[in-house]
Structures are given as structure tokens and as C-alpha cells.
Amino acid sequence: MMNPYWYIWWVTIGASFFLKSIEYGKVGSFFFFSGHISSDFIWYLFVGFIISKGKKVLNQKFYKIIIFICGVFLFYLGIKFIIDFIGG
């Protein structure tokens, strides 16, 4: 919650996903929550592993490539979510 983008994510994308999940009742809400928490856990487990390996795994050029790819992917998702929200 210290991340300023946490609020932006939950007000926009998170809320949209949650509203879609409650269309399926309690089961949908459960799967949304458990899927979200599981993906966070797996992601941070992966990040922790990569960080623990240090420069042996990520050199500066590879790191910049990964950051660029992640940025492009996040931009794509942002546009897609906006279009999905506007289009219904």
C-alpha cells in the first residue's frame, strides 16, 4: 500500500476485474482473490530468486531489456483495459 500505483490499480483495473468476478457470485470472488494473491506470491518468489542470484543472472543490458518489455506490456494492458471499460 506504500506504492502510489496500488491505489490507481485498484480503482481502475482491480475494480473492473472484481466487478466481473462478482457476476459469478461467491465462487467468482473467491477465484479472483485466490488467483490474484497466488500470482503476487509467485511473482515475488520469482523476483526474490532473481535478486538472490545477483549479477550472475541479470547483467545491466538484460535488465534494461526486461524493464522495456515489461513497460511495453503494461502500456498494452492499460490501453486494453481502458478500451474494455469504454466498450463495455
Can you walk through the features of this model?
Helix content is 85%, strand content 0%. It is mainly α and 88 residues long. The longest helix is centred in the middle third of the chain and has 29 residues, at 25-53.
The H/E string reads HHH
The low-pLDDT segments are none
List how many beta strands DSSP finds. Answer: 0
Percent strand equals under 5%
Report the span from N to C terminus. Answer: 29 Å
pLDDT averaged residue by residue: 86
Structural class: mainly alpha
Largest sheet: none
Number of helices: 3
Molecular shape: globular
List keywords for this structure.
single chain; 88 residues; mainly alpha; 85% helix; 0% strand
Task: Please summarize what this structure is.
This protein is mainly α and 88 residues long. It contains three helices and no strands.
List the helices and strands and how they pair.
Elements: H1 4-21, H2 25-53, H3 60-87
Helix pairs in contact: 1-2
